[in-house]
Amino acid sequence: MVNNLLVLQSDFGLVDGAVSAMIGVALQEEPSLGVHHLTHDITPYNTFEASYRLFQTIEYWPEGTTFVSVVDPGVGSDRKSVVALTEGNQYIVTPDNGTLSYIKRHAGIKAVREISEVANRRKNTEHSYTFHGRDVYAYTGAKLASGHISFEEVGPELSVENIVEVPEVETQVTETKVSGAIDILDVRFGSLWTSISREDFQTLSPEFGDRFEVTISHHDL
């Protein structure tokens, strides 16, 4: 099912060598890998944003693609490292810290496995606690994308129901109003992405030329 494609996402930025180190580890494992980038500009530690960007993107990639997402405020703690198999037959390698939330709710996850750091961690890195993106995630992602290990060889299976999730505002629909949340900003072009779907809005039976009042207020989750 794998296709030798590896897609990286992180909050590392590109001002230092962190992303390059991940690429190097992946290519050491399999030089023929096609390594691509979703984004490395996730707001630092923002697992909600990481989850949303994955959800926005994975449908455009072929079955068998392996994604590595490293937004990891709990690095070095007891949070789990996992690989999820989506309903679209793609793999997501990530900390279990909320990054899989949107995928679970809106794309679907078939199975999830905890990464065995005995079998799937770079050699001689057991005393490194702050760069699992390089030593665990890029390494495991490359092994999986290249077919050097199977999904079953990642590690023990976990319950999909127990995946850590970040809160999500439920859209509310009445006869005269639809309310939801601004999920994410498209700052470059000044757009807002909301939780209100086209189908939600269509319940108001809009016609061309109708006017609607839009109210934006600030409420933390």
Automatic annotation (TrEMBL):
- The UniProt record lists the S-adenosyl-l-methionine hydroxide adenosyltransferase N-terminal domain at 6-155
Report the protein name in the record: DNA-directed RNA polymerase subunit delta
Q: Which organism is it from?
A: Streptococcus agalactiae LMG 14747
Q: What family, per the record?
A: Belongs to the SAM hydrolase / SAM-dependent halogenase family.
Concerning Pfam families, the annotation shows: SAM_HAT_N
Entry keyword S-adenosyl-L-methionine: yes
- Which InterPro entries does the protein's record reference? SAM_HAT_N, SAM_OH_AdoTrfase, SAM_OH_AdoTrfase_C_sf, SAM_OH_AdoTrfase_N_sf
Assigned GO CC terms: DNA-directed RNA polymerase complex
Answer yes or no on keyword S-adenosyl-L-methionine. Answer: yes
Q: Which UniProt keywords apply?
A: DNA-directed RNA polymerase, S-adenosyl-L-methionine, Transcription
